[in-house]
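Example record

One chain of 271 residues, shown exactly as stored in the release files.
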Amino acid sequence: MSDTTDTTDDTRTDGGTTPTDGNGEPATDGGETGIVAPDDEVPTWQERKARKTGLSQLTYEYFERARREDQELREESDYVERDVLGFPTWPHEIIRNLSISLFFVGIMILIAAALPPSLELPANPSSTPSIILPDWYLYWSFGLLKLNPLNPGLAVLDGAKLISDQLYGVLANVVVVGAVAFLPFLNKGSARRPVEQPFWAAIGAGGAFFSITIAAIAVQNLIPLPLALQLNIAFIGPVVLGVMTYALLKTLREGYMYGLNRRYYMLRPPK
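Predicted structure tokens for this chain:
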């Protein structure tokens, strides 16, 4: 409790007592918000940078202190928490979700009726199209199969390639799919925003850029750019974008975490 708050005990129907303040209102756990500095007393960016203790350590100490105080208050208090109010599944949630689903289904039916897709000529089994492409969501995999310019030739084999271009493309797919499948086991954090984990956000930004640029190689016949330039963009661009993303989020992280702590203690200040 705050030093400026006088508490008295009111007898409850179950025989216990409920702490109240001087006005007869139930006393809160946090008391007054004296720990939160006014807006004109918030330390500047240079002052926060001059601190010897890192911001991540301060954040950890703040939340550990609040968690410990919450646990102590719960152990000392005989107050029974009320159930959280919410909307029942039927009819509120089901009716709402059904209305939204029917709305979008109606929009799709309207578009399909008003703008029917143009049908091409029937496929001719005796002729091969000049450009063969898979479905659009597999362009990245098809682009990896076209990395034959990167398959090196060995001088000891008189410039011959150690593996074929087809096998080289398959191995590239295995490496990319394996990396994507293995990443969740490396990052088990609970961050909800990129600014909370700049490194993994940079990895994600670079991976997304790589998937787009490698998919463009699959349709290189439709893009007026040299293949060598496309390969440079596909493999150098993700690294550059990842470094820029990491630097930007790392710069924003300190201000974000400081604001998060300040908002947290304004809502529930410690004793």
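Notes: Confidence is low (pLDDT under 50) at residues 1-14, 28-37.
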